[in-house]
Amino acid sequence: MNVTKVLDAKGLACPMPVVRARKTMKEMETGEILEIFTTDKGSVADLTAWAKSSGHEMVDQKEEDTGVFTFWIKKG
Fold first, then answer.
1. In sequence order, which residues have a C-beta less than 8 Å from that of residue 19 and are 6 or more positions away?
2. Does the pTM exceed 0.70?
3. In the structure, what pLDDT confidence band is assigned to residue 1 with cuts at 50, 70 and 90?
4. Domains in the chain and their CATH numbers?
5. 3-17 mean pLDDT
6. Measuring CA to CA, which of 27, 33, 65, 75 is 20 to 30 A from 21?
7. 28: which DSSP letter?
């Protein structure tokens, strides 16, 4: 996967991971991929819903044993 930008939103509570992701996506071109790291469990539902409603594609997501969630979102 070709990641264009990385956003470290670990330690941020809802809705900040989505706010930061939205801001970062505005700086990116269509088709580029944003990799996001969060520790907020709510970000799983929040980022998924935001990506869908904003016309972006949730390419993949995973949860580490350390409690870190990683998301890959392709700009639509």
1. none
2. yes
3. confident
4. 3-74 (3.30.110.40)
5. 96
6. 65
7. S
